[in-house]
Specification:
alpha/beta; DHBP synthase; 2 domains; 14 strands
Length: 316
């Protein structure tokens, strides 16, 4: 585990990490959303190491990370609409699903003809991607199905020695993964809500559809398997609605619960709730009691929160 500065990472450390990627090894890296577990997306054997480290199904595609829009065009076919989205939302928590070029390994694509492309809003990560000189495939750096890691310590706990290096830049700023938008067809499709809200996308694009069926969902990670799950039961509570409160429970949310929990993690906004969601799940599971999670409103970051909480509770 090697510390890196958010704005000015040590070039020697970045060069070492990039050399590991080019040699077929794995490197965990920070972004504004969560920590990723990176490997060379052009090297199928390196990508297989990612799936093995995570215990991840091999048909669950990976997101590729780039230092800029021009680099993304080396791995995907980018049209004017996608370029406009990159100009508006990159760097930032938006992944664009595009037709893949043949150079991208079938392992990174999960066997699909499309690939997810992203440019994180994180200077240290961008320096790392630039030094690699290849697309970096990078799912969240945790065991598959567990809450995503928002700090390097959690990466070490989940992944351990599977990563040759962990770049430690402290806590992630956003805390939930990127929005995944499929722009490979005529109408953009929101495959996974995340750090860029549906309202922002519709304001920029006009029509944005929701997915219909598994054939669309399989183009994005985090949509077809249970994710983000702690080792205890998660129940969803909506303020004002009827709810069967457990006798003993822990709680997280913005509103105060109607019953007294054994332990409570309170957030002062839904943005803070999103930022702290995965850490709260990991912390509260230590008590061995059911976790009651407040159900957020649908607008803004609430759509992404609903998605993650639903999957943690096994509702999706």
């Amino acid at each position: 585990m090697v510390p890196v500065d958010f704005w000015n990472p040590d070039p020697t450390v970045i060069a070492r990490a990039a050399a590991l990627i080019r040699a077929g090894e794995l490197v965990a890296f920070p972004t504004e959303t969560v920590y990723g577990l990176g490997g060379n997306a052009l090297d199928g054997e390196a990508v297989k190491k990612i799936y093995a480290a995570k215990g991840r199904p091999s048909d669950n595609p990976l997101i590729l990370h780039f230092p800029g829009p021009e680099a993304a065009e080396t791995a995907a076919y980018v049209d004017d609409r996608a370029r406009g989205l990159m100009e508006r939302f990159w760097p930032g928590p938006l992944t664009l699903v595009l037709p893949a070029r043949d150079c991208v390994s079938k392992e990174a694509r999960g066997g699909l003809a499309t690939v997810g492309c992203r440019m994180p809003d994180y200077p240290a990560a961008l320096a790392f991607f630039a030094a690699c000189g290849v697309p970096v495939a990078g799912p969240s750096a945790n065991r598959s199905g567990r809450p995503s890691p928002t700090n390097a310590r959690t990466v070490a706990e989940d992944i351990g020695s599977a990563a040759a290096m962990i770049l430690d830049a402290g806590e992630c700023r956003v805390g939930v993964e990127s929005t995944v938008l499929d722009v490979s067809g005529a109408v953009p499709v929101l495959l996974r809500p995340g750090g860029v809200a549906m309202e922002e996308l519709r304001e920029f694009l006009g029509e944005v559809a929701l997915p219909v069926g598994v054939n669309e969902l399989k183009r994005s990670p985090g949509t077809r398997y249970r994710h983000y799950a702690p080792v205890v039961e998660v129940r969803v509570w909506e303020p004002g609605a009827a709810f069967d409160w457990p006798e003993k429970f822990t709680y997280m949310g913005v509103a105060l619960p109607e019953r007294t929990p054994a332990r409570r993690i309170h957030f002062d906004s839904f943005e803070a709730y999103a930022h702290g969601l995965f850490t709260a799940l990991r912390e509260l599971e230590k008590d061995g009691l059911p976790i009651v999670a407040q159900w957020p409103p649908l607008g803004g970051i609430g759509r992404a929160l609903r998605d993650r909480i639903s999957r943690a509770a096994g509702l999706l």
